Amino acid sequence: MLLDGAFHLANTLHDAFGGKLIEQLRSRSPDALAYTKKLLHSTWSRSPRWAFCIETVLQVRLMTGAKHRIARTALLRGEVPEFAERRLS
Questions:
Q1: pTM
Q2: Does residue 23 fall inside a structural domain?
Q3: DSSP summary character for residue 1
Q4: Is 15 a domain residue?
Q5: Which of 47, 64, 72, 74 could be stapled to 79 by a disulfide with Cβ–Cβ 3.0 to 4.6 Å?
Q6: How many domains does the chain fold into?
Q7: What is the 3-state secondary structure of 7-72?
Q8: Which positions ≥6 away from 15 have C-beta within 8 Å?
Q9: Burial 40-67 (b: 16+ CB within 10 A, else e)
Q10: Does a structural domain hold residue 24?
Q11: Which domain holds residue 17?
Q12: CA 47, CA 20: separation in Å to the nearest integer?
């Protein structure tokens, strides 16, 4: 049932935005998307101060990661970054 709801939401978003949102998300670093999800889940019921602290830690991890270097290098060359699949750990 939950999967059906998620599938319906994805189809609705795809129809509403013509797939632009999905394509934009696909072009992002898999780590950035994962950290965004982690930030949302970690701070949903926390204070703004706690949320800011968690966001700072996650941004430091993201900015020092390999995928950020890939994105930075590709964008400096005027290319679209190509990311490897994200490995779950």
A1: 0.63
A2: yes
A3: -
A4: yes
A5: 74
A6: 1
A7: HHHHHHHHHHHCCHHHHHHHCCCHHHHHHHHHHHHHHCCCCHHHHHHHHHHHHHHHHCCHHHHHHH
A8: none
A9: eebbeeeeeeebeeeeeebeeebeeeeb
A10: yes
A11: 2-76
A12: 33
pLDDT for 59: 92
Distance of CA 36 to the CA centre of its chain: 5
For the chain, which residues score pLDDT lower than 50?
1-2
Q: Quote the tokens at residue 2.
A: 């939950």
Q: For residues 70 and 85, what is the distance between their CA atoms, to the nearest angstrom?
A: 13
Asked if the structure places residue 21 within a domain, the reply is yes
Planar angle of CA 76, 77, 79, nearest 5 degrees: 105
Q: CA 31, 28, 68: angle at the middle one, nearest 5?
A: 55
3-class DSSP assignment, residue 4: helix
